[in-house]
Amino acid sequence: MTTPHGTSDDKPDMPDTTLSFDSSPTREPGGEQYDDAAGYYVDGEPLADIKAPGGPLEERWGTRKFEARIANPANRRRLSIIVVGTGLAGASAAATLGEAGYVVKSFCYQDSPRRAHSIAAQGGINAAKNYKGDGDSVHRLFYDTIKGGDYRSRESNVYRLAEVSVNIIDQCVAQGVPFAREYGGLLDNRSFGGVQVSRTFYARGQTGQQLLIGAYQALERQVAAGTVRCYTRHEMLELIVVDGRARGIIVRDLVTGEIETYFADVVVLASGGYGNVFFLSTNAMGCNVTASWRAHRKGAYMANPCYTQIHPTCIPVTGHHQSKLTLMSESLRNDGRIWVPKKKADCTKDPREIPEEDRDYYLERIYPAFGNLVPRDIASRQAKNMCDEGRGVGPEVEGVRRGVYLDFAEAIERLGRESIEAKYGNLFDMYARITGEDPYEVPMRIYPAVHYVMGGLWVDYDLQSTIPGLFVTGEANFSDHGANRLGASALMQGLADGYFVLPNTIRDYLADGPFDRVPEDHPAVVEAQQSVKDRIEAFLTTNGTRSVDSYHRELGNIMWEYCGMERTEDGLRKAIDLIRSLRDDFKRNVRVLGSAESLNQSLEKAGRVADFFELGELMCIDALNRRESCGGHFRAESQTEDGEALRHDDQYAYVAAWEWPGDPGSPEMGTPVLHKEHLTYDFVEMKQRSYK
Ligand SMILES: Cc1cc2nc3c(=O)[nH]c(=O)nc-3n(C[C@H](O)[C@H](O)[C@H](O)COP(=O)(O)OP(=O)(O)OC[C@H]3O[C@@H](n4cnc5c(N)ncnc54)[C@H](O)[C@@H]3O)c2cc1C
Fold first, then answer.
1. Is 252 among the residues known to form the active site?
2. Can you tell me the distance from the alpha carbon of 557 to that of 570, in angstroms, rounded to the nearest whole number?
3. CA 552 to CA 573: how far, in whole Å?
4. Ligand 1 proximity of 110 Cβ (cutoff 6 Å)
5. Do residues 292 and 637 make contact, with C-beta atoms less than 8 angstroms apart?
6. Rounded distance, CA 362 to CA 45, Å?
7. pLDDT at 46 exceeding the cut of 70
8. Phi, psi (5° rounding) for residue 84?
């Protein structure tokens, strides 16, 4: 296998931590071979990221930027780019590419680019500015992110992310993003989980919104300049691949129902994450996998699909009536203390009446070094453990109290109510509106919920997928977070990709353009158009009895139960069977009312849920294959004596990149093909993570 990260000659004076890697099926300690996922997949050729230059880590991005070819300004006016998505990753990319002079078409399914899900981000964005002088640096951000991701991300990518982080803040400040400031006028920042420095820049609890307004304004500037054209309420339903290159997309105008075809020299997907496969999540209701999944079916590999982030601080589920969960930002863990009663008998008491000595501040107890600021995967798992022990609080749902306290009483006493209000006021208001309880008076109740996906389309260092000419940015790609994303680093990655990385790498590909015009009657185009029409027709003519939502909810329950916070071999096998039979039922019995020629949200959802079924199955197969625990992927069979995640670097230090098998036009899901990209660590020592 090719090593992606240069040769040993390139290494600075660092320990040699390269591990011997056995890509054959898992071995029992006794030596016998077995593979949990045998029969569910076939082995493919190993994969390597050959775009990352070798050499010292801190020089790699500079080298790549210099080596990537440039299309001259006159040629750029003849080069066209489609960008699907207007969240932070897509809007920043479209604006920057427009500014560079390319002809950009930008698509989103909302009525305005500004409504992309990025607007929901609350807590903040990381950058290694070291404004607090507390020991931060590019190298520390790089190290924290590699460790936080449980040694399942690429060193080159993560270092670049840390390096570029400092530019993002400057760019956003120049755009007028109103970051919080200290009394003296300097930008303020706070801490997030998994780190011991303060590097998270924020705009109260509305960081995503403010950053998106900045990116949107940059985008609108290009719209006015004529370099970008926006297509709102247009949903991409198919990718056009001609002679092996991505050359366009098929979209449905969600208002008129018209099926339209758009061509370009290159296509960028910035279509966000797929956490809604779990039905209940903190994601916006519209978030889906369709753009990525359609590309996957056309040859783009899907990487580490099972890596899901379960966020520890969400408002608990209260019953079956919900279709959405609400995040309480991780920033609250800066000042809030998490606890449960020591005694089960106290779980129904008013928390204010439980004396200090009867409270278990379990994160502070188990992880004294990081306390309430342990990473999300660890905080989530411990909350589940407390509730499984019977020490959860709040109403019972299906016989278990699924909640822990997040308590600000001490912080209010120490800092004063005004100070807490200034930092978190809008989050406290939101909590009060949803629960009817006043968090200034009574501790909040929180519980983990699905929040983010680290998995996504496989991309190389240039952010190019396995389909030439198809680039993927933001949450839609798998690139930088390994098996667990640290808080405040999704916004950092989305904006790094869009403002700084993609514009520098895509030009190397475009230097060979413009490519031959694709005629509308090209067989690949006709096939793509027809497959979209056939799918729509099939949904509308099934005439079954069950709503799309009811299938989605049931699929989500299966995913949460068996592919959620804890996964087991038996559970995952069961989930695959359940998903397959539910998908068959969906095909025969779904009821989609209305017509294709008008606004039809039930039809939109049907397409998204159909893709979630296939994705859900692949997630379970991926989770079954990985018989180790790492980050957000916790396999019950692989844990330390004290219940922490136990990795097996000798067998699983790889990115699992899945190929859609066989005929891309096939309506059926075949047996996926697994390509392994071996991860090597030349600059960081792979260790069992410890936050104690
Ligand atoms: C409640 C919440 C709070 C968060 N807070 C933080 C935080 O404080 N800090 C942090 O770093 N991260 C945070 N995150 C994570 C972060 O917000 C997201 O990972 C990030 O915003 C994703 O950005 P994106 O541009 O990749 O995708 P999105 O913002 O999801 O945008 C996706 C875009 O793609 C478009 N699209 C999708 N599919 C199609 C299609 N088929 N056709 C056409 N258009 C399509 C959509 O219309 C949209 O414009 C939070 C997440 C949640 C859920």
1. no
2. 16
3. 20
4. yes
5. no
6. 45
7. yes
8. -95, 115
**With contact defined as beta carbons under 8 Å apart, do 80 and 477 qualify?**
no
Ligand 1 proximity of 148 Cβ (cutoff 6 Å):
no
Q: Which two tokens stand for residue 212?
A: 């998106």
3-state secondary structure 298-325: CCCCEECCCCEEEEEEECCCCCCCCCCC
Residues in the chain: 692
Ligand 1 site, residue 124, Cβ cutoff 6 A:
yes
Cβ burial of 295 (10 Å; 0-12, 13-18, 19+) is buried
Kindly report the number of other CB atoms within 10 A of residue 232's CB atom: 18
Angstrom CA distances, 607 to 10, 204, 222, 533, stand at: 48, 37, 32, 12
Asked if residue 28 has pLDDT above 50, the reply is no
Per-residue pLDDT tens digits for 304-325: 999 999 999 999 987 777 888 8
Any bridge partners for residue 464, and if so which? Answer: 471
Residues 6+ apart with CB under 8 A from 648: 26, 627, 628, 638
Name the band, by pLDDT with cuts 50, 70 and 90, for residue 519: very high
Residue (of 135, 118, 114, 138) closest to 127 by Cα position: 138
3-state DSSP helix/strand/coil percent for the chain, to nearest 5? 40, 15, 45
Residue with CA nearest ligand 1 atom 3: 121
Parallel, antiparallel, or unpaired for β 302-303 and 259-263?
Answer: unpaired
Is the shortest distance between the CB of 122 and ligand 1 below 6 Å? Answer: yes
Pairing type for strands 396-397 and 400-401 reads antiparallel
CA triple 369-372-375, angle to 5 deg: 85
CA dist 266 to 105, 256, 471, Å? 11, 27, 8
Q: Is 235 in the pocket of ligand 1 (CB under 6 A)?
A: yes
Would you call 623 exposed, middle or buried from its count of C-beta atoms within 10 A (0-12, 13-18, 19+)? buried
Burial 133-165 (b: 16+ CB within 10 A, else e): eeebebbbbbbbbbbbbbbbbbbbbbbbbbbbb
Rounded Cα distance, 435 and 222, in Å: 42
Active-site position among 297, 337, 376, 507:
376
pLDDT average, residue stretch 494-514: 97
Q: Which pair of tokens denotes residue 597?
A: 């020629």
Cα–Cα nearest to 280, from 253, 305, 244, 317 = 317
The pLDDT confidence band at residue 33, using thresholds 50, 70 and 90, is low
Six-digit token pair at 318?
């209260």
Find out whether the beta carbon of 328 lies less than 6 Å from any atom of ligand 1: no
Distance 117 CA to ligand 1 centre (A): 4
Closest alpha carbon to 504 in 173, 247, 164, 75? 164
Distance 582 CA to ligand 1 centre (A): 28
Structure tokens that stand for 145 in this block: 């992110």
Q: How far apart are CA 591 and CA 570, in angstroms?
A: 32
Q: Quick one: how many helices (H) and strands (E) in the chain?
A: 18, 22
Residue-wise pLDDT tens digits, 243-290: 999 999 999 999 999 999 999 999 999 999 999 999 999 999 999 999
Angle, CA of 336, 337 and 338, to the nearest 5°: 120
Residue nearest to atom 21 of ligand 1 (CA): 118
The preferred substitution site among 107, 112, 118 for testing ligand 1, maximizing ligand atoms within 8 Å of CB, is 118
